[in-house]
Amino acid sequence: MDGTPPYDFSRLRRRVLAAMVVAFLAPLALLSIYFHMQFNLTMKQSGKQQLLSLAESQRNTIDLFLQERVVNVFNLFRGRGFNLPPSPTDMEMYLKRLQETSEAFIDVGFLDDTGVQIGYAGPYVFLHQQNYSDELWFKTLLTQEADYFISDIYLGFRNKPHFTIAVKQRMGERFYIMRATLDPDKFYHFLRSIGQGKQVNSFIINREWEFQVVDPGYANVLDKSAFQPTVLEGSAVAEIKTDGRDKLVGYAWLEEAPWVLVVKQPLDVAYARMYTARRYIIIGTTLAALLLFTAVLITTNSLIRKAEKTERNRRELKAQLFHAAKLASVGELAAGIAHEINNPLALIASQCVVIRDLFDPELGGHAPPFGQEAVDQMIKELEIVESAVFRTKDITYKLLSSARKTEPKMELCDIHRILDEVVDGFLERECHIANIDIVKEYASEVPPVLMDADQMRQVILNLVNNAVDAIEGPGKITLKTAVDNNNVVVTVSDTGKGIPYEVMGKIFTPFFTTKEAGKGTGLGLAISLGIVEAMEGRMDVQSLPGAGTSFIIILPVQR
Description:
Distance between the termini: 44 Å
Strand order of the largest sheet: 2-1-5-4-3
Oligomer: single chain
Number of helices: 11
Order of helices and strands: HHEEHEEEHEEEEEHHHEHHEEHEEHEE
Radius of gyration: 50 Å
Largest sheet: 5 strands, antiparallel
């Protein structure tokens, strides 16, 4: 540890917190104040625009409704088998067609250019042969250029409110007219069905300010409207006071008839959504400020904790460097000792061979006086010594391999050939005896890879041996190759017991092993990882306890 005093992180925390609060919350507060000022200025205009949009939307829907009814009447002229003049049966069929398109149709009539209704179907049978030449709608239709006319609401011969849609069609030298009447009450039901806002009252008046379509509870058809629009075309919105209550009125003139649609709504209701939106905005702004403050607090504490951790790590690093230097010295010493141990091991192994040859008559040896049974026992003991020597040599070899960094001899190699050389022959027969199947799933086209063939054989052999050790009873080892994004991928999978989660991060650590004492050195995977990384590759592992393990070697094709 160095002798510098510890830094005052509490003071730093207070300063950073104050700076972040000013940097984040102050602009948000100023923005909120400005927004609420602008909101109060635009609230009324937004409410008016909303009601005006509702009026225009309903106006467009009503125009479309009237256009469709005009087309329905026109289509009677163009129907297959139209007869002139139409028979009563034809007229009944025409009325049925119209009522199928809209229940607002009451009756239908067919007139010649003199105004006589020569065909009729509907509930008012006395209208047959009635003369309409003096009716305003008839005169207007014959004299205007347009070939259809939609009348105002009137009583007519039936003395009951209705309006007429009449169309004219030239046939030969004369004009003929098809007329249909519609029920204002049904029209009002249609107006109610096309969408209303809260406490919105919609009605239609003509240019004489007479109600054409209106709620029966509000007024009667053909009564005078107290509200008279100041704009005689297009659409507009205004504030008025009726029935002792301030109201917002939007109105829009229709295109298909000389009518204006009026939409009324109380001011407090019209602006209610805006007031609600403002409350939500205030609540949202407050929550955002709280969340931001919390985020600032969490971020500040996180930064301070990281700074404190960095300071602790800095102080610990010096001690760790001293410890690492000691470990490096110990590693070099261990490598030297391993090298020195190899010499007496080789001597012990050679002397075991010499002693065994002394008792071999084929090599000129002499029979010992103490009997052949004792010789056989001695030879078994010598084999045990030799096995221990070779195992010790294997440990010292791995120790030397992990301590020394050797450059691989790189050359283009066929990975399939290396895999076959490792598993074919003795290893495959050994697995067959142990009831372990070796399955090869090679990709069809795998390019050569630049690698050290001997070291790669060592890696594959180590992985396969680990797979054999992991399988208890019958099992399967799968060797799989693939090409992925200019990489050759080699996977060695087994159906063994898998690797526990708690040791997964330690398996590549030197001298760490999960095998029983005396059956593993803990150097195999560490050396294999070093070999693969020396070839600019990487090694991954996937394991599920009880289901098996897959070691994945990824080698670049081009470097």
